[in-house]
Amino acid sequence: MGSMELAVRINGVLPDVAAGPGEANTSVSIYSGDFHLLVDAGSGVSASLKASQLGRPMPDAILITHAENEHISDLPSLVSQSNVRIFCTTDCMNQVINKLPFFADKQAMFTAIQPGQPFEAGPFSVTPVAAENAGDEPGFPGSVIYVIRVGDRKIIAGWDFLTLLNADQNLMWNPDLLLLGTETYNEHPSTGMISVSEAYDIVRRWNAKDCYVLHYSGEKDTEDKRNQWHRGPVGPLSPDELQKVINDHLLVTGHEGKFAITVARQGMVWTPAAKVEEEGPVGKKIEIEALEKYVFSLEKLSDGKVALSIEDSVNRLTSEFINPRLGGDGKSLNTDAVKSMMMKGPELHLGVSESSVRLDVLKGKKPMFAKDIPVSEQDARKLVRYLRENFTA
Fold this sequence. Notes:
By secondary structure, this protein is α+β, with helices and mostly antiparallel strands. It contains seven helices and 23 strands. Strands 7, 8, 9, 10, 11, 12, 13 and 14 form an eight-stranded mixed sheet that branches. The chain has an eight-stranded antiparallel sheet with strand order 16-17-18-19-20-21-22-23, with helices on one face. It has a seven-stranded mixed sheet with strand order 6-5-4-3-2-1-15. The radius of gyration is 24 Å and the shape is elongated.
């Protein structure tokens, strides 16, 4: 297959080393142009790549999350005939070399990385985030997950973690694709990994509209049979059964279809939806997803008022305003406060530049919210169109 803008292939989804014929441990390949970036290389991954019709089977670079056998056992077969660079922490590198004699005299193939410090791998900019995966057994020192950027796209590859250490929430915000390892459906910290139930919250907090879950076994969920009040799954689910439970949950809590969670299958391929700038009327309501931390919306109500909602991973601010007025430049909006017999509400001042929106919600002289919010140029243009369409100067 020729070069491609961006594609992600699920090489395997299994948590165990003993993968059956044709099956592979948890691993993904990310392709951009002619470059193949592989994340983890456990049992069956080499064979899975050879069976792929997407890109070249041999990787140009390999990211290792941690040195558990089901994430490294196929490394020798993937690097023996090429000059592949292997990126992992120093702790992880030492563990790999100790476990796999093939690498005893090949330390030069490794590039040591540091959590929180970005590095380049071909066209990709990669930031490792320190991960804790200790459960019933000790975790693996030097474990990380990866935030991977190419162009204006962001992919997070994160499995085998229970918590993240010193994670920058702006770094995690708004990925195009989130790949999560979820060992169980219900919370079982003893596994050293998050559950599907915890993934629901992570998807919302990170504003990940497209999420694939991998590494699921569900075996620990059998322990929940002992609790007569438990209403979730009490044993392993098939991929179809797990997908149905997830879909039913999102039907109630998925913010009207904003979030999608897919049970990954080996061989699945994800490509990003085209970012097409809309033409024609914007309508009475607009929602903007900031590049860092925030989602905000404006709505022109039927009584002439304006409603504003600002939400981050923790908090949500909503308010209404009266007498909206478009600025002379057509890129700003000012309002007055709603007054009642008991109190006076806040007023809103909004201004749009090429790459940010300034929002000031003031109650008297006290700011309830006052920030410059980074947005894409496309969303900035759309917001200006919305202001001009709905308000007069």
